[in-house]
Amino acid sequence: MVGQPLNALEEGVGRIVASLQKDPSALESVYISVIAFAGKASVISPLTEIATFYTPRLPIGGGTELGAALEVLMHEIDTKIVPQTKSQKGDWRPIVFLITDGEPTSPLELSIKQWQEHYAKRATLVAIGLGHGTNYAVLEQLTPHVLAYEGSSDEDFRKFVDWISASVKSESQKVEHTHSVMELINLSKHDTLKKVEQPQRFVEPNTITLTGRCQTTKRPYLIKYLRAVTVTLLQKYDKDERFYLDGIFPISEDYFNWSKPNASKEVKASALQGIPSCPHCGATTAVASCQCGKIMCIKGEGEAKCPWCDRVLSFEYGEGDFTIQRGEG
Ligand SMILES: [Zn+2]
Ligand SMILES: [Zn+2]
Questions:
Q1: pLDDT at position 61, please?
Q2: Is pLDDT at 198 greater than 70 in this prediction?
Q3: End of a domain among 195, 215, 230?
Q4: 290 Cα to the center of ligand 2, angstroms
Q5: Contacts of 310 (CB under 8 A, 6+ apart)
Q6: Structural domain tally of the chain?
Q7: Inter-axis angle of helices 154-172 and 4-21, to 10 degrees?
């Protein structure tokens, strides 16, 4: 996740926390943990009582390692949740909101099987897809509670986030610690959150991300392209695919810590429509390709030094096509 959705989600977590911190029953009983996943998965906020919870910054990274996220989640449930026994009351059953916008970048059948066999009965998992890049078929293997967020405005997103807060509050007011997911889902009174009833066949990834570095400052950036969606029956995707520029985002070195290593997919330069300028130095072309396979910004024709491998290259504009290394969206 990158750009606007990620910023919205980060604000969303802050809004949920602020709302729960004002609620007396939530203050007494709610604990929150945040697990982030991109090319890697990690606990970024350990399970903490709501009163002292501090909203984390969500990392940006290449990849959608949902399997790794499940492994982390299962480990957290094993080590942090006090089980109910005859002699101890134990913690309430955890609610997990899984929010994703992508296509998992590694097989995760084993993690799904492990979840279903040992954890599905101990936690309530509500999976929410943001946008058309979501692979709902995978989410449906994990849980019967799959929702698609279909809002578009900031106001829609706030309603969605408030629905999460309201679900948690209503749970914290109950005496029993069983909860009905149907109740949670029925709390959603707005039409931007739809229950996914039918397994949907996922067609192809809809985004391409490229990471580049500024030649002048050496700082990294991320370029995102979206697949052109055309509804032509005769369309042959592999021969005629086009991706349109969605945006370019400055990123920090931390991006590489959160990205899946050795991602080696490629894309033809001619499939990419629209060349952004560098977000760090303003150079006109942020998609120049070095012989090392990496991407850099250039100010025009002539010599330039690759910020990745230090080769000195001579650039000229031409008609020829070339392949570019792409990341895992
Ligand atoms: Zn630059
Ligand atoms: Zn290079």
A1: 85
A2: no
A3: 195
A4: 5
A5: none
A6: 2
A7: 40
Q: Identity (one letter) of the amino acid at 248? A: I
Please give all residues whose CB falls under 5 A of ion ligand 1, grouped by chain where several chains appear.
214, 216, 278, 280-281, 283, 297
Measure the CA–CA gap between 254 and 263, rounded to whole angstroms: 17
Residues 185 and 153 in one domain: yes
Quote the ligand 1 centre to 114 CA distance (angstroms).
Answer: 46
Helical H runs in the chain? 4-21, 24-29, 66-80, 109-114, 136-142, 154-172, 181-186, 254-257
Euclidean distance between CA atoms 327 and 18, whole angstroms = 35
**Hey, CA dihedral for 135, 137, 139, 145, is it positive or negative?**
positive
Asked if the structure places residue 155 within a domain, the reply is yes
Structure tokens belonging to residue 14: 């802050």
**Ligand 2 centroid distance, CA of 222 (Å):** 17
Percent of the chain with pLDDT over 90: 37
Ligand 1 centroid to residue 213 C-alpha, Å? 7
- Give 225 Cα–ligand 2 centroid separation in angstroms: 22
Full domain range(s) for residue 175: 4-195
CA of 147 to the centre of ligand 1 (A): 40
